[in-house]
Amino acid sequence: MTSPTATTEPPVTPPGQSSLNARLRGRRPRPDGARGPSRWLVSLVSLLAALATWAVVAWIIDDNILPTPFEVFGRVADFIVSGAAFSNFAASIVKIGIGFALALAAGLPIGFVMGRSRFMSTYFSMPLFVLGNVPGLAYAVFGLAIFGVGATGPIVVSALVAVPFIAINVAEGVRSVDGGLLRMCRAFDRRPVDVMRHVYLPAITAFVFVGVRYAFAMAWKVEALTEVFGADNGVGFMIRRAYQEFKVADMLAWTMLFVIAMVLIERGLARIETRVFAWRKELA
Amino acid sequence: MTTATAPEATPRPLPADRAASLWSRRGRSTSSSLIALAASLLSMLAVWQLAAEYGHRVPSIGETIGRLVDEAAGGHLSTNLAVSMNRFTLGLVAALVVGTAVGVLMGLSRFVDYALADLTMAALAAPAVIWALLTTMWFGFGWLTPVTTVFLSALPFVVVNIAKAVRAVPPDLVLMARSFGVSRTHVLRHIVAPAVAGSTVAAVRFAIMSAWNGLLLAEWFGSTSGVGWRSRYWYDANQLDGFLAWLVIFIAFLVLADQIILGPVEHFVTRWRTA
């Protein structure tokens, strides 16, 4: 309640993953410099307490189905040392990268016409809404059934998950372009290429970046799920293999790596965003 | 209160679900948007039909509808939906109750916020499938597997959004109202309620979406009844039309929950906003 930013936050309904990001971003400007160390201390103590609870419960149950934190950390260390962690994460991220490239190729033109025309905006919003509401299970199963085991399924699935985010944010970026600027371009006979390059592009890039950042978490989860159902490498595939071999410690270790990688990438993207688009502050 | 007052100049992102409110709002306004919606629906069906025609193993619309009718006639539709709804409601209500309690604490106390922020973030980042697999191993094929998965998948979304709602209450307005002797119910009704409404609806919306995904996964891996199990039954039988018929039900449920129930509620509670 003491946060001064709380009241200045825009009262928009946060999207699923973005609530996480909004909280990350919202926290940064808090003037808690004096209390800085205590935040880390409290956070560390609570994490240690959670680990201790886990260890005690695992010790009481004393069964293979709930390994102790030490076993799991040991497996995490093994995966990192052996290079399995790196190769599987790299495989997953390459698939998402290709999927996002496809999503950009489809989402940019769709978003552009949505921003320019009300008719097209209504036309595309229903299919985009449906794409955004398909449960992850359905994407995963269809990815496997139609494309078989391999890289194509996860790539197509992550593209389909990302398209609505990118298209809707591009449309919003196009709508944010100053109409007076466009009329002036027309009055001075600017070529369409110039208008694209100097008016639309700067307006859209920041929105696209935000779209990509929010789509990333969603897309990666569904992509990992698709790998659980059918793949020959990647994080999801490793979780599936550990499940089938009944190695709970391995499952938890891969999940832990997944969570850590996801949080690190999200923070990295948020940092890039504030750095690259710092110039927009003057515009606001 | 739009981007101009945002703490950072980054553009306000729009979630995929926002498209929904856009099409429902504009759909009512003019007849040209009705044409657009009709064209949109027809194009989607055409794309489906084309995919069935030329794609590999994609069932056609007719086969899917036929299978759906068979499922309804055979009683599988209603029994499995009833079983799943029981589990879904149980897990979701538990997540809403626990999540609201934790979220209010996080919103009110900076100490609790610091203590739980990292754990909540990790829980948000964890994929639902891991809960489904773990609960299947822990609890076997009973009712506890889907209910726990639903609870765990929905919980972090409730916590984060409720904490955000609590932080959105303007403290200076509450203080002013108190110093002017405004009664407690008036403060609740006119200051607190409007401030928390938006994020609370968001909490329920994302909890429903995430919980539904968790339910399907848990029933797929660790259940012998329910909608997720039934769709797996068709998949294992290598009958993709049966699976697609259930997928139509899954999407329809989310669209109904979003458009028919949450949409109007959100519109009503946020009607004070001018933007």
From TrEMBL, chain B:
This is ABC transporter permease subunit. PANTHER family: ABC TRANSPORTER PERMEASE PROTEIN MJ0413-RELATED, ALKANE SULFONATE ABC TRANSPORTER-RELATED, MEMBRANE SUBUNIT. It is a multi-pass membrane protein. SUPFAM superfamilies: MetI-like. The keyword Metal-binding does not apply. The chain crosses the membrane at residues 34-51, 88-108, 120-141, 147-166, 187-208, 243-265. It holds the Pfam family BPD_transp_1. Belongs to the binding-protein-dependent transport system permease family. It is found in: Cell membrane. Signal peptide: none annotated. It comes from the Bacteria. It comes from Actinomadura alba. Keywords: Cell membrane, Membrane, Transmembrane, Transmembrane helix, Transport. Residues 81-262 form the ABC transmembrane type-1 domain.
